[in-house]
Automatic annotation (TrEMBL), chains A, B:
Belongs to the ComB family. It is an enzyme of class 3 (hydrolase). This is 2-phosphosulfolactate phosphatase. Its EC number is 3.1.3.71. InterPro entries: ComB-like, ComB-like_sf. It comes from Aplanochytrium stocchinoi.
């Protein structure tokens, strides 16, 4: 309690000192003489606060670094379909999800933990979009039903989503975002002061429009409610990509069908997944990756 | 002459065989029975032709490969400022431009060729946006005047533009595109049948909006005049990024000032360059990189 109070006082002092410094710089630069000192200090304080809400988009994990995401809020975006599947699985009552990079890792983990997780282990994921041989479930959100996953622990590996999580290993918090829980993501980010990084998973190193569309909708919504975000070029572009769907008045479903991922899924016979993935705000849960235990919980 | 005729006949036969094949597939898939055979063959032929005009955008050289660009028309895009500077230099009468990756390479090349190019060698380029020590000119388009470069050979190295060219080493043709010569680029691409790849240089591995805006304008213009292009996700997104500037009715100049590159140049004191770079269709020349001699000529 006392430590917290001490922290608050220190932070206020530092903030006030910086504010005075900025106020002086303003006064010198703009030759302000007549404005009252209080309102002037307030204006300078607002200006100072403007630069501290970073909101960046990264079109691929390869386009950022662990260092850049350190101490930030990172939203992992793999719309078709890992982000959505994880959200559906946790909404259906799965206890938690352990994400893995390789099939070997998840298989070994199951063998080692079969006696620890007596509630039962489900293996899920995909390679090339299809269910992995010997696994219980693929990567379709619809198959993660209550009957299948309630109370169970899931070992999960996908080609891109779980890889994107690796970049966020030093983040302050790691959220899983998709259209099914977009309002929960926005509510959380609106309360945050830490830098926000929206990390698109892409598909095997190729930028995918479905991920950028989601990132764009988040930037569009946050920047509309608070214009003081510091956006990188990718964030401005993502927002423009989403804003164009508003101008064209197309449905999210039709947009997602005409993306690299959407076309790939249609070819594989998973067209129904696209429709499911396009439904907004189905759940209010916020899957969060605990980087210490490397498990995702709601 | 006979070889050409033989080629035309063979191509027609192959095209007709494929058309018949697609027609049969259509007939089987859509259970078409009543439509007249001629109009049906024509429809199938049009469908077949739809897939042969590839138009792809790559936000960074790292997001594509030499293999993917093989036998294509590649447009190198480094709006702020290499593409623009090269166009201005050739328009001012420079004989040709040799692009190099490193400073050492361009300096050695000058030493080796001082007696070959008796018309005179100019060294130009930048590191960190600034003129390189010992070089004649920096990377501002405005300094490549007739007085400085007419009839001369230029050795040129920049951080990103010359690196992007390396990816296009196996391309059919390599063009240098910028807003200053955008109509010349569009006229050329409109006549082409080969796959088109618009290659954004970015800045040190970071995607830059000024390059994507140019690529977007090209996609927007080409796809408006011919809807049969096969676009990748990056092309659709670039087009949306450009289309948003039309919706917002902002000037290109104000958009470029608010990009990563634009802000960087303003900090370095090169704000005037942004205004120059934003001027469309100043020249009708089309700088082309000859991949055999590795030199750029108009």
């Amino acid at each position: 309690m006392y430590i917290y109070l001490f922290y608050i006082i220190c932070e206020s002092l530092v903030s006030l000192t910086l504010t005075c410094f900025v106020a002086c710089a303003y006064a010198y630069t703009y030759r302000i003489e007549r404005i009252g000192p209080l309102s002037f200090l307030l204006a300078a304080h607002v200006r100072l606060k403007m630069s501290d809400r970073v909101l960046e988009v990264h079109f691929l994990p390869e386009l950022t670094t662990e260092k850049a995401l350190e101490n930030s809020i990172v939203v992992i975006i793999d719309i078709l379909r890992a982000s959505t599947t994880i959200t559906y699985a946790l909404a259906a009552g799965a206890k938690c999800i352990y994400p893995f990079l390789t099939i070997n890792e998840v298989v070994s983990w199951k063998k080692e933990n079969i006696d620890t997780f007596t509630e039962g282990i489900i293996l899920g994921g995909e390679r090339g979009g299809k269910i992995i041989e010997g696994f219980d479930l693929g990567n379709s959100p619809s198959v993660y039903t209550e009957d299948e996953v309630r109370g169970k622990v899931i070992g999960f590996t996908t080609s891109n989503g779980t890889k994107a999580m690796q970049s966020a290993v030093h983040a302050k918090r790691v959220l899983i975002g998709c259209f099914s829980n977009i309002s929960a993501v926005l509510d959380d980010l609106n309360k945050e002061r830490a830098p926000i990084h929206l990390l698109c998973a892409g598909t095997n190193g190729v930028v995918t429009r479905e991920d950028v569309l989601f990132a764009g909708k988040v930037v569009h919504s946050l920047a509309n409610s608070d214009s003081n975000f510091c956006l990188n070029d990718e964030a401005i572009m993502a927002s423009a990509v989403y804003a164009q769907t508003l101008v064209k008045q197309t449905t999210l479903d039709s947009e997602l069908r005409n993306t690299l991922g959407g076309r790939g899924l249609t070819k594989l016979g998973y067209e129904d997944d696209i429709e499911l993935v396009s439904k907004e705000d189905v759940f209010s849960i916020l899957p969060t990756l605990d980087t210490k235990t490397w498990s995702i919980r709601r």
